[in-house]
Amino acid sequence: MNALVWVIGVPIVLALLGAAYIRRNRDKPSGEPAVPVRRPAGGRTGSCGQQTEVWHVASSDVEPYYIAYCACEWMGPARDGADPKAQEKATADAYGHSGNVAPNVVRPLG
């Protein structure tokens, strides 16, 4: 029984701690100015009422990309960060899913 608790319980606890760390630290200033999210002109607005964010994911381990992420766990397609319109496309994805979009781009990896 103890082995079963360790095999199942430890990964769950680690996942919860990791998620809490990301949530707590994703809004801390990264030394870069906040990038506002601008609603695309003429775009349709989705019907999900939960907040959607535009994430800019970049680190030394991954190629940079933009993605729309909603609190309902919906995710838009990853937009290549090398594309100059990637943030604009991810923003359109966010508004296409929900009219409730966070005002600034989130950098979950700092």
Question: What features would you describe in this structure?
Answer:
The structure is a single chain. With 110 residues, the chain is of the alpha+beta class. The protein has helices at residues 2-25, 86-97, and strands spanning 52-57, 65-70, 79-80. Helix content is 33%, strand content 13%. It is globular, with a radius of gyration of 16 Å. It has a domain at 31-97.
Summarize the structure.
The protein has helices at residues 2-25, 86-97, and strands at 52-57, 65-70, 79-80.
Work out the strand percent: 5-15%
Q: What profile does the largest beta sheet have?
A: 3 strands, antiparallel
What oligomeric state is this? single chain
Provide a count of the helices: 2
Structural class determined from secondary elements: alpha+beta
* Quantity of strands, as a count: 3
Which sequence of SSEs, written as H and E, runs from N to C? HEEEH
Major beta sheet, strand line-up: 1-2-3
Unreliably modeled segments: none
The residue-averaged pLDDT reads 78
Helix content: 25-40%
Radius of gyration from CA coordinates: 16 Å
Shape: globular
Could you give the distance between the termini? 40 Å
Region (Disordered): 26-49, 81-110
Keywords: Membrane, Transmembrane, Transmembrane helix
Biased composition (Basic and acidic residues): 81-91
Transmembrane segments: 6-22
